[in-house]
């Protein structure tokens, strides 16, 4: 019996590895960048989250506590791209550049640059960008959108010293 579920991944690309310097001055192979495009469908948020967190854990060796925060960021940014974008697909790109991870979500839809906005106490939506801001700040990174509003991005260190917000968890 044929499935009526749309194809989940349109394209994937894992590109070649590059050398990066380690703390001791030696070089090692950097993880391959990860590019994936999904059909613009709400069911693809969990798939994007699983692919992104697996890449962070296995390719970049990001600590589990940091992966947990990044997982929510991936969910929120991909979810926003699916809800607010107008193209047929959503792209997720992840790169490790030196000691940082760069994550990009491309909805292919030029728009006004989104901003966090207040949500009422009873509202079921509207807190996603506030959450992204809090989690990326906790990760010691930065985030934003391209000037045309098509790409949401965030950059955060792979590792950092634990902060009081880690509540005693290892970073």
Topology overview:
Blueprint: E1 9-14, E2 19-21, E3 27-29, E4 34-39, H1 44-59, H2 64-84, E5 89-97, E6 100-106, H3 128-138, E7 142-145, E8 151-157
Antiparallel strand pairs: 1-4, 2-3, 4-5, 5-6, 6-8, 7-8
Structure, described:
The protein is of the alpha+beta class and 171 residues long. The protein contains three helices and eight strands. The protein has helices at 44-59, 64-84, 128-138; strands spanning 9-14, 19-21, 27-29, 34-39, 89-97, 100-106, 142-145, 151-157. The strands form two sheets. It has a six-stranded antiparallel β-sheet with strand order 1-4-5-6-8-7, with helices on one face. A two-stranded antiparallel ribbon has the order 2-3. Mean pLDDT is 80; it is low at 1-22 and 167-171.
Q: Give the topology string: H per helix, E per strand.
A: EEEEHHEEHEE
| Low-confidence spans | 1-22, 167-171
- What's the gyration radius in Å? 17 Å
**Sheet with the most strands, sense and barrel status:** 6 strands, antiparallel
Distance between the termini: 47 Å
- Overall shape: it is globular
Average residue-wise pLDDT: 80
Helix content: 25-40%
Contiguous helical run count: 3
């Amino acid at each position: 019996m044929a499935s009526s579920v749309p194809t989940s991944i349109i394209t994937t690309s894992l590109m070649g590895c590059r050398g990066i310097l380690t703390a001791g001055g030696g070089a090692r192979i950097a993880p391959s960048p990860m590019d994936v495009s999904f059909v613009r469908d709400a069911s693809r948020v969990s798939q994007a989250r699983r692919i992104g967190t697996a890449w962070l854990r296995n390719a970049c060796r990001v600590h589990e506590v940091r992966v947990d925060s990044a997982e929510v960021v991936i969910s929120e940014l991909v979810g926003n791209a699916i809800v607010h974008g107008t193209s047929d697909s959503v792209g997720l790109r992840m790169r490790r550049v030196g000691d940082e991870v760069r994550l990009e979500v491309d909805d292919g839809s030029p728009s006004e640059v989104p901003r966090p906005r207040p949500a009422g106490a009873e509202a079921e939506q509207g807190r996603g960008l506030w959450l992204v801001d809090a989690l990326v700040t906790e990760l010691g990174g930065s985030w934003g959108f391209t000037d045309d509003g098509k790409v949401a991005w965030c950059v955060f260190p792979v590792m950092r010293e634990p902060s009081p917000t880690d509540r005693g968890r290892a970073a």
